Task: structure prediction
Amino acid sequence: MTTLHTVNKSPFNSSAFDDCLGLAKSGSTVLLYEDGVYAATSGTKPADAIANTDGVTFAVLGPDLKARGVEGKIADGIKVVDYDGFVDLVAEHDKVHAWL
Amino acid sequence: MAKKFMYMNTKAPYGSIYALESLEVVLIGAAFEQDVSLAFIDDGVYQLTKGQSTDGIGMKNFSPTYSALGDYDVNKIYVEKESLEERGLSLDDLQHLTWEDEDEDWAEKDSIRLVSRAELADVIDDQDVVLSF
Result:
């Protein structure tokens, strides 16, 4: 079973990101959107945690990055997708786990 | 008599309505000629990032409004250093907010004051009213 995990809360004031990272299995994908995109910005503990997580693919929603002015701060190795890419990810995985 | 009002901004923009609502209340407070200060801590520092562009998410980009605060005599904007650093940000990542000093031939001055958590605690202690968003 492949899983797409989605996180839309800031990693700094919600446990959603940490919970997700702790339970995401190798082969799954984590998509960060809305305030979740801040987890992908370089120079932060969440970005370090992403870099140290093997076997999980990380993606981030481009329009939410642009809205928040952090498009230029995304850490290496994190794929930027648009809304069509979001839909593709949903279609490619067996299920979606939306973290809250 | 004017009171000292402090508006604490603690949430990121767009993910919730708090940031925009705070801005609305700040402008109302300024219209009543109160002594207004703003503080940005925790995810609130994200409200001030420059280069915000919301075309792709169908929401209003209210970040240009911060640069108008100086015209409403809102020129004490405290940004907590620890919150910026935890988020991999520096002052260079934020908008350059200024105001014009009537008493010094309208000299342009910086509105943002980078303060430590301890310094901010003293500023908050000095306020008559503190509102948190």
In short: The two ends of chain A are 21 Å apart (CA to CA). The longest helix of chain A spans residues 83-92.
